[in-house]
Specification:
five-stranded parallel β-sheet, 2 domains, alpha/beta, Rossmann fold
């Protein structure tokens, strides 16, 4: 029986397939193989129908060691320069659905920013400023809790009146959570809802898993993978209506 020469010579052209003793006479499609040789690819429902996987852009993967960023989700606007991994799109799709469902409710902030007290003038303010520069309305304790206002009640209102919750995971937050302070109460409320996006900054998901396995189970965004400005661009696109 004639053996296919593709493993050695490849069938990159129709002439190559025609020269192969095993494949000559078969389908004259690309590479000398019939279209039935491989199953057709249908993108998962959370990816746009036009998605075609590129080399190295597997659908599986975790927040550390993600595949190349080559996907635009269904909610991306025409001309957007923001690209995602398939894993990010899969994780953010339920959040986007919540944004759209709550979009008809008036007077909601786009996002509630949960952060450690120690980060209020550092990473949390940086993320807040980047988001607001992109037109995102942010509930941020540094500006939304007035002197004399009961903090827990203000936070409760902020959570209720925001479409999405962002948890800025930093070394400071990892130290605060076991003490069951304000950040822990915010996180507990957000974990009960399908509208939570972790943003890992200056630490790792492995370190987070030691402190909060439930939060670590939520795939989010990571500034070790891309700059904070790119993370803010994704969040801004996620909540845009």
């Amino acid at each position: 029986m004639a053996r296919c020469t593709a493993p050695v010579d490849g069938h990159r052209t129709a002439s190559g397939a025609a020269a192969c003793p095993a494949c000559r006479g078969r389908s004259r499609g690309y590479g000398g193989y019939g279209h039935s040789s491989y199953p057709s690819y249908s993108p998962p429902s959370y990816l746009p129908p036009s998605y075609v996987p590129s080399a190295g852009s597997g659908v599986s993967g975790s927040s550390g060691g993600r595949s190349s960023r080559s996907v635009k989700p269904k909610w991306a606007r025409a001309g957007s320069s923001v690209f995602y991994t398939p894993t990010e799109v899969q994780a953010l799709t339920p959040i986007r659905q919540t944004v759209e469902q709550r979009g008809t409710q008036p007077d909601l902030r786009d996002v509630f920013l949960c952060h450690a007290w120690d980060d209020r003038q550092g990473a949390a303010k940086q993320l807040h400023d980047l988001l607001e520069s992109k037109g995102v309305s942010v509930w941020f304790s540094e500006k939304d809790v007035n002197l004399g206002t009961p903090l827990l009640r203000a936070i409760d209102k902020g959570l209720a009146n925001s479409r999405v919750g962002i948890v800025l995971v930093t070394p400071a937050l990892l130290l605060r959570l076991p003490k069951e302070g304000i950040a822990d109460k915010e996180l507990s409320a957000l974990l009960a809802l399908e509208r939570l996006v972790p943003v890992v900054h200056g630490t790792t998901y492995e370190a987070l898993r030691d402190v909060s396995p439930l939060l670590a189970s939520r795939t989010g965004l990571d500034t070790a993978e891309e700059p904070m400005a790119d993370v803010a661009a994704k969040l801004a696109e996620l909540v845009a209506l």
